[in-house]
Write a structure and sequence with these properties.
This protein has 88 residues and is mostly helical.
Length: 88
């Protein structure tokens, strides 16, 4: 299962039709470090619980939380910067 995850978060082909805003978000997710992108994809796209994400990636729940927290922080910063650019 883990071998398929890079494709899940790195390939546009596997994402359903998305609005332009959603496409920007997932494009930014794919720019995250590999583990952060995998955690975000499994948690949000696949709607898995943190312990399930940890089981798939062979990570502790605390490590999954850390990756998710770092990913959210990075995404919030990048998306805010993008919004400022669009508003200018």
């Amino acid at each position: 299962e883990t071998k398929a995850l890079p494709k899940l978060v790195r390939s546009d082909e596997l994402l359903p039709e998305l609005s332009p805003e959603s496409s920007e978000v997932w494009r930014e997710v794919r720019r995250l470090p590999k583990r952060q992108a995998q955690v975000v994809a499994l948690y949000y796209l696949e709607d898995l619980a943190l312990d399930d994400v940890g089981g798939i990636l062979e990570l502790s729940v605390e490590t999954v939380r850390t990756h998710l927290r770092r990913a959210r922080r990075t995404l919030a910063r990048r998306l805010a910067a993008m919004e400022e650019t669009h508003d200018s």
